[in-house]
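Sharing a chain and its predicted structure for anyone who wants a worked example. Both blocks are below, sequence first, tokens second.
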Amino acid sequence: MSAEITARTLELSVSDVPPIKYDFAHCDVVGLRISYHREEVTSVTALTIDPESKQLVSIAYRVGLQEFWEPWIRELVEKHRTTN
């Protein structure tokens, strides 16, 4: 029996990237979670640390609004899009 993998999720550790703006505050990004179905992006989530609580915070991006993503996020999504 042969199975084709059609969905995958990557969780990337990132450093030296510009902070993102969320709830009127700038947040340092520590990771990026990207999900694909075949070659299409199905979700993008930035991972940050809340400076007060020290808890991990997930910030979801709308897949249909890629023109509003930070350029470095678009670059990482494209870089990891292919499964080869």
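Comments welcome. The mean pLDDT is 88.
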